[in-house]
Description:
Blueprint: E1 16-22, H1 27-43, E2 47-52, E3 64-67, E4 84-94, E5 104-106, E6 113-115, H2 128-144, E7 148-150, E8 157-159, E9 164-165, E10 169-179, H3 186-196, E11 200-206
Antiparallel strand pairs: 1-10, 1-11, 2-3, 4-10, 5-6, 5-9, 7-8
Amino acid sequence: xxxRAHSGKMQGMGVYCERIVDLEATEADGARLATxxxxxxxxxxxxxxxxxxxxxxxxxxxxxxxxxxNWRRITLEDWxxxxxxVALGRNTFAExxxxxxxxxxxxxxxAADTVIIDFPSGQWEPDRAAWEPLAAGIEAWQRxxxxxxxxxACDTTSPIPEWRWSSGFALSxxxxxxxxxPPLTEEFQQELAARxxxxxxxxxxxx
Length: 207
């Protein structure tokens, strides 16, 4: 970890990121929706138009928007902020620290779960036979925009964006990363979802 990482506001807890993922945004409308949200946050004084790399450790953006004078309106605590990054494009998002594999994937055709990591049985590594076909579908989707996987339970092949994943793992073309911000209020998350017109999920990432 670089020296810059030690400037995180959560002393002794590393670098913290609260990520809001739009579960329904497509690549075609991601940029438009991102502009709508950033315009709103700038108008409310939550963000500024200033771009910065300080305190930013995103895998999806090189710069983020600096906080504005009214950033405290959307947080539960008051211990400082870093930038807000916008993630566009076909991406996978995983919650936690160093975790990049879902616990299970739910087939959109039959709703059966493909178990990838069987934690109740003491398994901590992914079942490669179960995960590799799904991972290949995700990789194809990220590379070309088209990817699919076959369900072992019903033998149906479905587009990878239609599969549903365990909590903490998502595919999307739009997410907002709040680096070193205090926890965001539920009211803000609800308004953000309403302005997007989509279902969102909150992820917490720690480096």
